[in-house]
């Protein structure tokens, strides 16, 4: 009898916990990088529950990985500030200006650079979500003034 009750409780617990999944798909677009100096990080809620995410994504959370140099900026206070809820199937896009990243001032106008983008997602949401979709692709960018 105890074994049957245990099996029923395990089935019930897995059924209930399996109902609400927090899953985010992330995609980075560099289509506007050269002409506008903007990288777009798109977050799609592919789970089946509403998720709170930050309304803004700090440009210091996007890093240019070149020659084994990664600047690490941690969020010490109030990482999660103003939030918005995204429903299942809803898409939210963060425009991130490359000129506001840590490494941008070190780049020289007119020079072409190749790098990989790294997104620190620690302050994207305070929920424990499965996150997938970002690809590690090499980006080519020629620095110009984006005013």
Short structural description:
This protein has 147 residues and is α+β, with helices and mostly antiparallel strands.
Low-confidence stretches: none
Number of domains: 1
- Estimated helix fraction: 10-25%
Task: Tell me how many strands there are.
Answer: 9
N→C terminal distance: 73 Å
And the CATH topology? Answer: Immunoglobulin-like
SS summary, helix count: 2
- Measured on Cα atoms, how large is the radius of gyration? 20 Å
In round numbers, the mean pLDDT is 79
What is the name of the CATH architecture? Sandwich
Q: Kindly provide the name of the CATH class.
A: Mainly Beta
- Alpha-beta classification: alpha+beta
Shape: elongated
Sequence of strands across the biggest β-sheet: 6-2-1-8
Strand content: 25-35%
Main beta-sheet strand count, sense and barrel state = 4 strands, mixed
* Order of helical and strand elements: HEHEEEEEEEE
Give your account of this protein's structure.
It is built from two helices and nine strands. The chain has a single domain, classed as Immunoglobulin-like (Sandwich), CATH 2.60.40. The chain is elongated and about 75 Å long. It has 147 residues and is α+β, with helices and mostly antiparallel strands. The relative contact order is 0.26. The model has no long low-confidence stretch (mean pLDDT 79). A four-stranded mixed beta sheet has the order 6-2-1-8. A three-stranded antiparallel beta sheet has the order 4-7-9, with no helix packed on it.
């Amino acid at each position: 009898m105890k074994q049957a009750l245990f099996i029923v409780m395990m089935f019930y617990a897995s059924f209930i916990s399996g109902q609400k999944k927090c899953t985010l798909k992330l995609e980075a677009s560099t289509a506007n990088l050269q002409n506008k100096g903007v990288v777009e990080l798109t977050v799609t809620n592919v789970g089946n529950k509403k998720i709170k995410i930050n309304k803004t994504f700090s440009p210091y959370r996007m890093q240019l990985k070149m020659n084994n140099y990664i600047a690490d900026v941690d969020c010490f206070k109030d990482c999660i500030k103003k939030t918005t809820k995204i429903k299942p199937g809803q898409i939210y896009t963060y425009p991130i200006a490359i000129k506001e990243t840590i490494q941008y001032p070190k780049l020289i106008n007119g020079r072409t650079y190749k790098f990989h983008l790294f997104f620190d997602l620690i302050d994207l949401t305070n929920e424990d979500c499965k996150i997938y979709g970002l690809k590690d692709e090499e980006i080519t960018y020629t620095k110009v003034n984006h005013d």
